[in-house]
Amino acid sequence: MSTPPAPARGAAPLRARTVGVGRAHAKTILLGEHAVVYGAPALALPVPQLAVTASAGWSAAGPGAAGGVSLTMTGSPSRPVATEASDGLRQLAAEFRTAMHVAADVHLDVILDCAIPPGRGLGSSAACARAVVLALADLFGREVTAQTVFDLVQSAENVAHGRASGVDATAVGAPGPLLFQQGHTEDLPVGCEGLFIVADSGEVGRTKDAVALLRDGFQRHPGSQAHFVRRATQLTDRARRALAQDDLEELGPYLTAYHHLLREARLSTPRIDALVEAALAAGSLGAKITGGGLGGCMIALTPSDQAGAVTRRLHAAGAQQTWVLPLTARTGPDA
């Protein structure tokens, strides 16, 4: 039987574990995409039915070889299997070693079972990173604070997407809706009972390209950044109040207006626009692109009695998959 690797000098003793397990889930942005990077608020919802589980093990590195990390992805047979870690995961593992004083000559083997489609604005990369951090902590018997988990996931997100706002790193571990602004997170009060429908366009979004496209537009058009951030903040604040005050009829148009803001910034696509129009035509109160843009998913606020009609219309309009997110009243952290 293998013995666990010795801890780095000065580290606490390790538990004798051979497998560590960590879990996380998807998220969706209700309002605030892109503007959150510039200090505006964002509203995020967890998507618990789309989850990722990481299983981590270790093996001794060869003589004279530095410990590395290998990654295997399971799930859809149509998804290529990765045998080496991504740059973000490799950096995350290295930073975990440093933060948790894990010996550098230990090779890490990570298996990810991820049900979150990548490139859809659902937080796939952040959820995978969080699951890996928790799996490594479990493997080596280390207690990790919420701040340490966030910092490690955020580091991986910055590699994957460039300048990450921190929304994804937080929301993929949150039990309920969140308000996020300038690095501060708080529970989002919800006084409404309803549901959202998320539809996958089938197009892979490109967050880095979307961020660069928006930044380029701001640089070429003086004043456009201030207008974008001001309008985004206005819509997000109004939506937050409508959520708290149980006013779905008021909330819906704010989603659609935010979609128009992102479409004007050239972050939507014809396929996403078609899904938005289909949802509205079938009875949704509001609909918009969600996530980084240039592909990905759409989210629609829908009365429960219209959910079936909206879902059928979305699939007819080209949606590859749909998910329903129930919205329940939640007024505090213990709700």
Would you write up a description of this structure?
This protein is of the alpha+beta class and 335 residues long. It has two domains: 20-181, 2-Layer Sandwich (Ribosomal Protein S5, domain 2); 189-327, GHMP kinase, C-terminal domain (Alpha-Beta Plaits, 2-Layer Sandwich). The chain contains nine helices and ten strands. It has helices spanning 87-100, 124-140, 146-161, 167-171, 207-220, 224-244, 248-264, 270-281, 307-316, and strands at 20-31, 42-60, 69-74, 106-114, 178-181, 184-187, 194-200, 286-290, 297-302, 321-327. The strands form two sheets. Strands 1, 2, 3, 4, 5 and 6 form a six-stranded mixed sheet that branches. Strands 8-9-7-10 form a four-stranded antiparallel sheet. A hairpin with a 2-residue loop joins strand 5 and strand 6 (184-187). The chain is globular and about 60 Å long. The model is unreliable at 9-14 and 80-84 (pLDDT under 50).
Short description:
It contains 9 helices and 10 strands. It is α+β, with helices and mostly antiparallel strands. Belongs to the GHMP kinase family. Mevalonate kinase subfamily.
Give the helix proportion (percent range): 25-40%
> What amount of the residues lies in strands?
15-25%
Mean pLDDT: 86
Quaternary structure of the protein: single chain
Overall shape:
globular
Please outline the major beta sheet.
6 strands, mixed
Name the helix and strand elements from N-terminus to C-terminus, one letter apiece: EEEHEHHHEEEHHHHEEHE
Subcellular location: Cytoplasm
Domain GHMP kinase N-terminal: 101-172
EC number: 2.7.1.36
Main location: cytoplasm
